[in-house]
Amino acid sequence: MAEAYSTILAREIMTEDVISVGPDTPVDRVARLLAEHRITGVPVVDEERRVIGIVSEYDVISKPGKVAQDIMSREVISVSEETPAESVAQILTEQRVRRVPVLRDGRLVGIVSRADLVRLFALTRWTCEDCGYFVRGFQRPRRCEACGSQRFVLDREPPGM
Q: Which of 2, 13, 41, 109 is the most exposed place for a label (fewest CB within 10 A)?
């Protein structure tokens, strides 16, 4: 089913059920969470779900410490729910990070990883309403390469993604 979007937003592709830890979570527990859930990092949050750091696989294996706050990366790059997917992709590539927390009013509400963006790229396409030509990408094309139309819809494969 086609939907009319000009761009795809972080809220549409983020993982909402985010695995996170508190600053006093033991490092061995963090390592177990990463392994059990097959993820590469977790946000470290305070009691109000404000992100105060991130612990990645790299942090676990390269930094000494007993609890998450000892080894976490403190400079966290985050986005809002309204951040375009194209901007998220740019942040991930330029900053060389694997994930960005998604915040609402400063609190953690989701996370977007490289895997989320790859899935989006693989399962969505911009389809010309006039000729059916399609392209993949995070932002609506300006003109159809086949017929010159400016009328596009975002198709999700399979429908309902």
A: 2
Helix 85-94 and helix 114-123, axial crossing angle in degrees, nearest 10: 130
SS3 114: helix
84 in Cβ contact with 9 (< 8 Å) = yes
Residue 100 DSSP label: E
pLDDT: is 53 or 86 the higher one? 53
Please say whether the beta carbons of 139 and 5 come within 8 A: no
Q: What's the pTM?
A: 0.83
Q: Distance between CA 20 and CA 25 in Å, rounded?
A: 10
The residue ranges of every structural domain in the chain are: 2-7+123-156
Predicted local distance difference test score (pLDDT) of residue 32: 98
Nearest C-alpha neighbor of 44 from the set 79, 71, 14: 71
Q: How would residue 35 be classed by pLDDT, with cut points 50, 70 and 90? A: very high
State the amino acid at position 116 in one-letter form: D
What's the chain's Rg over C-alpha atoms? 18
A 10 A CB-CB count for 92 gives 20
